[in-house]
Amino acid sequence: MATKTNLEMIFVNALGKKTTLRVVDPSATLTAAEVKTAMEAILAQNTFTSNGGELTSVAGARIVSRQVTDFNLG
Fold first, then answer.
1. 18-27, pLDDT tens digit by residue?
2. pTM for the full model?
3. To 10 degrees, the CA torsion angle through 7, 33, 28, 42?
4. Contact present, 6 and 21 (Cβ < 8 Å)
5. Domain range spanning residue 51?
């Protein structure tokens, strides 16, 4: 069994819809301040876009962990 972890950064786009950027296996020592700084830099540099247009504001962020068990079927 393996634990899979993602950082989900949630933004609001130009249409007012939420869109999520995911980072696989973020640092275990990541702080909320670091995430906020990164998200603000993404907005300031207009780094990403979405189906609903440019990202316009920060909506939230979270770490998501899940347990994954692969079956050996062969």
1. 999 999 999 9
2. 0.88
3. 40
4. no
5. 2-68
